[in-house]
Amino acid sequence: MSSQRVLHDHFFREAKRNGYRSRAAYKLTEIDDKRSILRKKDFVLDLGAAPGSWLQVASKRVGPRGKIIGVDLKEIDNLQLDNVTTIQEDVTELSLETFENEMFDVVLSDMAPSTTGNRTIDHHGSVRLCHTALDIAATLLKPKGNLVMKVLEGGAYKELLERCETCFSVAKGFKPKASRAISTEMFVVCTGRKEDMTKPMDIAPPRPSSGW
Ligand code: SAM
């Protein structure tokens, strides 16, 4: 068995053993252990939350006085966590009214486009979702708030990171051990939303108009 396969089996088995809905739980766990994204009592928005393992991790980390809202195209069933609410919705079509003017301490995005197998197309689909997450953060993230988002690496990564650097005190790429080594997936970890985080639609690639 290849070492990659062993790694896969390790995180898969751990997720099963610990009751997580997917191995992705270990990606957020490692990111938070290393970069301290989540705190007790935080209000968290999780974009692309199905099947729910990041919700499970965030639920524990923010504790009973924190709150998490998970949004996904797919239904997220039966999580049974008191501090978690879920919404079935396309993130690109979310309306501001959904959150009743509440602001979040943290925005997470593990969103991934439906993959085509073509790395360039998949990369650009992923980058578009990241720009959507940034647009949402520009509207809903509290000053000094944090954003973590998944991206498939490729040519537009540099420009995405530059946008993050203009909006946050620190923005850095992170490849967790639970990400498969052969995958182009990585995470941009942004901390300390700047007060003047602009909505730089001007440098984001064109995308369908939405409520954001
Ligand atoms: N973080 C999740 C977990 O730990 O269980 C796994 C997320 S999964 C890798 C990516 C998710 O992004 C999919 O469930 C997909 O439906 C969702 N997604 C992709 N595009 C989306 C969009 N435009 N709006 C909402 N969800 C989206």
Describe this structure in words.
The protein has 212 residues and is α/β, with parallel strands linked by helices. It has 5 helices and 7 strands; from the N terminus they run ααβαβββαβαββ. The chain has a 7-stranded mixed sheet with strand order 3-2-1-4-5-7-6, with helices on both faces. Strand 4 (104-109), helix 4 (119-140) and strand 5 (141-152) form a beta-alpha-beta unit. Helix 4 (119-140) packs parallel to helix 5. The longest helix has 22 residues, at 119-140. The radius of gyration is 16 Å and the shape is globular. Residues 200-212 have low confidence and may be disordered. The chain binds S-adenosylmethionine. S-adenosylmethionine binds at residues 21-22, 24, 48-54, 71-74, 90-92, 110-112, 129.
